[in-house]
Amino acid sequence: MSRMSWKTARRTRLTVAALAAPFLLTVFAAAPAQAHGAPTDPVSRVYACSPDGGSSGSTACRAAIEAGGSPFTAWDNLRVANVNGRDRQTIPDGELCSGGLPVYQGLDLARSDWPSTRLSPGATLTMKYVSTIPHTGTFRMYLTKPGYDPTKALKWSDLPEQPFAQVKDPALTDGAYRIRMTLPKDRTGRQVLYTIWQNSSTADTYYSCSDVVFPAAAAEGAGDRASASPSPTAKPTASKKESPAKASPSGTPTPSVVRSTAAAPDSTPVAADAEPASGPSAPMLAGGAAAVLLLTGGAALALRLRKR
Question: Residue 84: inside a domain, yes or no?
């Protein structure tokens, strides 16, 4: 290419760029921002399985990524436009975690091994909802009903009609909304904390599923019933007065195992048993003394008879 041709081509490229620049700026200015937010504590499925979340290598996240066909790089963009509060009419059953968006469909997989956060029933929780662009709007938090089965697809009927917490226009501080709420007291086991963020500054509504685990329900009163039931083979001992049970330093007994009443027919508490002596037992000492006396007496009698 000659020097003149090279200069002509360069001028042409500069002219095209100069003419296109105003148009491109107009397009970018009119386009909506593509980054918004999602819960990171309790961690949401979309964030946990994203490259930023740290759990993308887990079994559940690998299955979710495979189902969606791509990694959840845009973990902060799970949003649906123009819902206007008609969540239950817009988002189908079984697609609550994805918002019905095909690229996030892997988040709807029904399984009990999603990355989760341990919570205590009735406790105060401060949710951290990371957001890169501030918006006004209302957060509504739902917790799946008692008896929720994580191995089945999440449906609207698994959630109460009303949220257990709701916050409007919280402040965005250090890149996150921090939303305080009091958890219900009657949840046990694995549940889903479902968050809806309905913007008022945009037409978008954001959906997220955070898997949480509460302590399992304990068998109420089982130990009390067992200790209150007398053993059918236990016999009262009127000749021996039972010693009171020894208590722990805190004032309450601290058994480490549950003892079977069938294996121990004696109903005397274990803590009431006398501590074993460090030397020989008393019966052995008594028996030894008797034997010595017997031998001594026999030898004396034999000497007396011999003298006669």
Answer: yes
Tokens of 214: 């509460």
* In contact, 130 and 194? CB cutoff 8 Å: no
**Distance, CA of 226 to CA of 265 (rounded, Å):** 13
Question: What is the DSSP secondary structure assignment for residue 44, as one 8-state letter?
Answer: B
In a domain, 123, yes or no: yes
Structure pTM?
0.63
Pairing of strands 189-199, 176-182: unpaired
Six-digit token pair at 18? Answer: 């100069």
Give the model confidence (pLDDT) of 151-195 as tens digits: 999 999 999 999 999 999 999 999 999 999 999 999 999 999 999
CATH code (residue 162)? 2.70.50.50
Enclosing domain of residue 42 = 30-214
Q: For residue 134, which of 84, 82, 170 has the smallest C-alpha distance?
A: 170
Please indicate, yes or no, if residue 177 is contained in any of the structural domains: yes
| pLDDT tens figures, 54-93 | 999 999 999 999 999 999 999 999 999 999 999 999 999 9
One-letter amino acid at 146 equals P
